[in-house]
Amino acid sequence: MIGDLENPASAPEHQVGLRRRQRRVQVARACDACRLRRTKCDNGVPCSKCIARGNHCSNSGALKASTLTEASEEIACLKRKVQELETELKRQASDHHNLPSPIGSSPSLHSDRLSTRADPGPGLKRYRDGIQFRPTRSSNETWFGPSSLYSFIQRLGEFLNLKLQKEHSVHRLHPVSASDHKLLDVPEAGLVGTQDRPLSRPTEDVFSAGIYLSLIQEEYFINLYWQTYHTSLFPIVDETQFKNHYQSLLVNGGQNRKPSALVDIIIAMCMQYATSTMPAETQGMLAEGKDALVAGRWHYWRGQKLLQYELDSPSLSTLQCHLLCAVYTCGGSFHNLMISTVGLAVSTAYMLGLHLDPPPTMPEKDREMRRRLWWAVYLMDSKSGMKLGRPFMLSSSYFMPSLPSDTLEAAASSGSMFTPIGQNATWLSYNLHTVQLYMKVRTAYTAFYDHESHLQERQALWPNHQAQNSGAEVLNAYAQSIHQWVDGIPESLKLKRQNNGQSSSTDFSSIVLEPFTPPWLQRQRLLLEHTYHHLCVNLYRPFISFTLKPLSDSISEELAMRCASHAIMLTMITHQALTESTLFDGWHEAFFCQWNAVMTLVGFVMLFPSSTLSYQAKHAIELAILVFDNFGAKFSVAANAAKIVRDLSVKIEVLTRSSDLEFNTATISQDFEVGSLSSVSVDQALPSQDLFDAPDFNLFDMAVDIDFWNSADTLWPDLENLSQFQAEI
């Protein structure tokens, strides 16, 4: 037995068979270097031969796909790895953004990290880009959103600059009005007694410096308030209580009065308005520096100083002052100051608890006043936000108080006595329907810009026609709600039309100014329809796009046509009201709405030169010049607007003739690719990067402070060179 173990030859046969079947380990595939050398390769990663020679070995350990299934699996694996790496990068960028920068860190590394934006995450909206611009009255840049006229004119200027193929810069001239007369200039003498009592309110002292009115003059302007702003803006001041308050301020046998912020701001507003109705040569000392926009600034300044003492303990009167100050600064075109004042009004309204519906134990008269104040804040917040393209400050995600009443009982207890206008409508009905209009438009505005918030940062509003039509469908869905508002206007508040034209329509019929109608009621009718057209222009203007022209017969093109129609109708109403009445004389809101409309029409004519509305739009531009001439006889900002639009209208006629060749016959210049009218994309003509690098046309500057330009002749080629210029195009 032992001998069998020691002698291999005597082992069992099956053990010998197993030894014979053992084979060497073979390599599944030799590396590239071993295959070329025809040498033995092992499964090392890298192989031992390559390590010995110091060569690069192709053995990486990764399986190479030899079939379609294996290739698909490898691609899926790589995609998962890429997603994991991107997620990790975003997380690191977010962590770095939330941590303070380390002291002494490398500037280049710091800037690289800041350039990596964190993912906004689900449910978060991204602000649209807008533009950064330094207004003439400001030393710093401020942001204006994409819905603002500022942003629209910036894009229009870049579009014109590219079409002209020349550099046209605006040379800033010396200011002709408000730049030498700042709104917040402090009188030399300052406050009487403030050095001795810096923290005490000057209840007995009277400001001695500046241009102030006598009591008789104050009464004139105060009485003007009840027929204008009180009825045609918002009824937030009880007339009876105010007059009693004013009488209580009289001292020294009626020779002087005590300071009052509310009285001063009402006087300042009416001085600004009344001075703007007077010819420039008769304005006298009320218009300092021949600028009606800053008339009453001394009363405004005094009221502002008094309001500082109420910031920590506000009252309803404090809120009334903030709202009226916002109107005054808006009329003077101090838009950043206006929106800051609206912010004060919003915070004050929350401090006073006006966001809660008044308790039933409160007298009905006081309940209605609190509601009117809250909705006045809502109206100013909506107006300023949509005008400048900035976020709203009032939260709309909570229930709000009930709308103010316009019943006969509410009107009787309001403190003002105006005759009922019929059909259960009163002088308060105008304010109620204005608020309802802003509610509907603000809802549509919010839905539209929230819908576009999914776009990537720095991406154009319309990256393609599909996105453009998608946005148009969202906005068009709210059009029916706005039409329902039109149908709900009482007949006594509707502006009649000639030849059986429909009120609040765009049928281009002339309006009828009924005789023997109180001016306050006629102005309410005008302003209600005027505001409707103005808001529709702003709502539909994104579809007059200089980056992507809407497709023919698309819903986007339809909304662009609606925008132009409302702008034309607004111009016709403004022109007729100024020609046949004095209802819009000095009304700065009407002027700014007209400027907004005419610049929109300029953009429309440039983008749609062969549209069926092109003729009406050009005619409306001519009417706008007459409107600015009328306003310009009273305040210089309108006179300069007339010069600008008059110059633009001449040159636009030349450019639109060349545009007929570009868009109708597809004879496109070297910067435009040939295409059919239904598919011409301005993206081809305006590369997104080149837009920001294009020469500065500065048409945008004219919209911000057009009162600062005496001439716009430098914008365009000389008149004698027009034929040569047309030939070049």
Radius of gyration: 36 Å
State the strand order across the main sheet. 1-2
Q: Counting H and I runs of at least 4 residues, what is the number of helices?
A: 28
Strand percentage: under 5%
The biggest sheet amounts to: 2 strands, antiparallel
Helix proportion range: 40-55%
Distance from first to last alpha carbon: 114 Å
Structural class: mainly alpha
As residue ranges, the low-confidence spans are 1-6, 95-118, 169-181, 186-208, 663-729
Number of E strands = 4
Shape descriptor reads elongated
User: What is the average per-residue confidence, as pLDDT, rounded to a whole number?
Assistant: 77
Provide a quick synopsis of the model.
By secondary structure, the protein is mainly α. The chain has helices at about 1-5, 15-20, 30-35, 50-55, 70-100, 105-115, 150-165, 215-225, 230, 240-250, 260-275, 295-305, 315-330, 335-350, 365-390, 410, 430-450, 465-475, 480-485, 520-540, 555-580, 590-605, 615-630, 635-665, 680-685, 690-695, 700-705, 720-729; strands spanning about 130-135, 140-145, 250, 255.
Task: Explain what you see.
The chain has about 725 residues and is mainly alpha-helical. It contains 28 helices and four strands. Among the domains are: about 1-55, no CATH class; about 180-415, no CATH class. The protein has helices spanning about 1-5, 15-20, 30-35, 50-55, 70-100, 105-115, 150-165, 215-225, 230, 240-250, 260-275, 295-305, 315-330, 335-350, 365-390, 410, 430-450, 465-475, 480-485, 520-540, 555-580, 590-605, 615-630, 635-665, 680-685, 690-695, 700-705, 720-729, and strands at about 130-135, 140-145, 250, 255. Helix 21 (about 555-580) packs across helix 22 (about 590-605) and helix 23 (about 615-630) runs antiparallel to helix 24 (about 635-665). The longest helix is centred in the N-terminal third of the chain and has 31 residues, at about 70-100. About 40% of the residues are buried. InterPro entries: Fungal_SecMet_Regulators (IPR051127), XnlR_reg_dom (IPR007219), Zn2-C6_fun-type_DNA-bd_sf (IPR036864), Zn2Cys6_DnaBD (IPR001138). One of its GO terms (cellular component) is nucleus.
